[in-house]
Amino acid sequence: MDQYDKFVLDTAVKAGRILLACGAEINRVEETIQRIARHYGMDASSSFILSSGIFLTAENKKHEIYAQVKHIPLARVQLCKVTEVNKLSREIEEGRWTVEEAWVHLEEIEHMAGKRAHTRMAASGLGAACFCYVAGGSVWDSLAAFIAGFLLYVFIIWAEKKGRVKSKIVLNIIGSFLATFLSVILFKAGLGSTLSAIIVGSIMPLLPGVSFVTAIRELADSNYIAGAVRMLDTLLVTGGVAIGVGLVYILYHRLTGGIML
Amino acid sequence: MIITLLLQLAAASFGTIAFSIMFSVPRKYYPYCGLIGGGGWIICWCMVNFLNVSNVTGTFVATAFVALVSRISGTSLKCPAILFLMSGIFPLVPGVGIYWTVYSVIMGDMQEYSRYARQTLNLALAIVLGIIFVFEIPQKGIAAIAGIGRKKEKKS
Fold first, then answer.
1. Which residue in chain A has the smallest CA separation from B133?
2. Do A260 and B107 lie within an 8 Å CB cutoff?
3. What pTM was computed for the model?
4. Tens digit of pLDDT for each residue in A86-134?
5. Burial class (CB within 10 angstroms; exposed 0-12, middle 13-18, buried 19+) of A160
6. A200 → closest Cβ in B17, B20, B96
7. What pLDDT is recorded for position B122?
8. SS3 B35
């Protein structure tokens, strides 16, 4: 297989890899790979995509076969990268990019800086505060939820940084334990009046809304494997969060000798 | 009443924007995310409080609204609809239900537990149905609606 064909397919797979790692749906990944390959003249390619891997084979006119298998670990959702790749594939189809330029641009997108750590912490705090208010808290409750949500993400970013906590389940249990614990402390210190609203707000940043929505979309597109994987992810994360909240309650119950929160 | 409504709208909108920052949605889409999330929550809230509809029905209608508006804005702004859907759905996620389910398990109150667990599950199912219904509408229909929207904008 000559160099050009191989380069085209490498570019297509790279685009697919970025999309999949950043939280796009299977159909979009499949379509983007096909679109890029077809535009640069590789007609007979066929791909099989799971939520953790891309398998692609293609054949050119001389009946030479190209195959690539890529493993893609589930990572943090970064929708800005999805948007950029989506725009690029649209523009490729309009014929505005050569393969080399597209490769360089994909490289840029891949190394695009995400949001900075303290922006994410502040966002988590703000989200917790707002959803505390939505769940029926007062302004003071929201302030408590802001502090708990902010500190929760300080922990999560610390844990993510060097892969200190490997297992996602453990991370969620510890995270929700921490958020609930902080809420209880703030509540006992006199900040806020509705404990349930504070806790609901502060665990909100952990709840798996994204994998839930993706799971439903995959199932609706009849991608049952990807949908089942995401649904399992949703259930495990929710279970972890529930265990974390429960642990605080049980500990409090035991340590204070039977007083309920 | 109206002040409460506006405060709820503001809280849900800013919460949605906060989550879209965490998913690193490009900055120019923040207002859309906020309005979609806030709008969805207000629909659910008004239906439950003014029309005496059950929570589940309200969530279903609100989810359908969020998904539909996400798809329309995705088509007319030429970007993936998940950009808006992922954070827009967050106000409707049954966090309260999960909390009370855990709480009643710890309290050992099995009657309350089964009530809250069932309610949480129903809310989740309402979200599932809402999204699936809207995403089964063919792209042509969505493009037609988005096209109408754009023509109107040009006229005005």
1. A220
2. yes
3. 0.84
4. 888 888 888 777 777 777 878 888 787 777 778 888 888 888 888 888 8
5. middle
6. B96
7. 92
8. helix
